[in-house]
Design goal:
- By secondary structure, this protein is mainly α.
- It has a domain of 88 residues.
- Helix 1 crosses helix 3.
Length: 147
């Protein structure tokens, strides 16, 4: 492995990130339709590989909007939210050591490690909670009535 080079999963992740950034930046030119263009005559069309047409490669939603266009435009929102959350965590993790070094905050080393660990675990807990929320939204069947 060469020193300083990106290899394996890191390189693949960088390629995926760059492609996503380019798609989000040039969504107006890449997307076949606008993000909210509707045509009810083409509502709920299947994807091209399931019998649909290549005019809507990923099909359409119940309002006749092109799913591919909505995914491309949705990349903007997703990347903006990801950038914002990474920025906020970065600010916290970069500011705390400076506050400790400057003497503004005096905590023992283990308390600082616990604080950083709590910040890092927060995202995992949010992900777990959002994954579990789908389970609770399923309809609950009433128990059978006794006869």
């Amino acid at each position: 492995m060469a020193r300083g080079g990106l290899a394996g999963l890191a390189g693949a992740g960088l390629v995926i990130l760059v492609v996503a950034l380019l798609v989000a930046a040039f969504a107006d030119f890449i997307a076949p339709r606008g993000d909210d263009d509707q045509d009810l005559a083409f509502a709920l069309q299947p994807p091209a590989w399931a019998g649909g047409t290549w005019a809507n490669p990923l099909g359409t939603d119940p309002l006749g909007r092109d799913v591919l266009s909505r995914v491309i435009y949705g990349a903007r929102t997703s990347l903006l939210l990801a950038l914002g959350s990474v920025r906020e965590v970065g600010i916290v993790l970069a500011t705390l050591p400076l506050a400790f070094a400057g003497g503004a905050i005096t905590l023992p080393g283990h308390a600082y490690k616990a604080l950083v660990g709590a910040v890092l675990v927060y995202a995992a807990v949010q992900l777990w909670m959002s994954a579990r929320a789908g389970d609770e939204m399923r309809p609950v069947r009433a128990p059978p009535r006794p006869r």
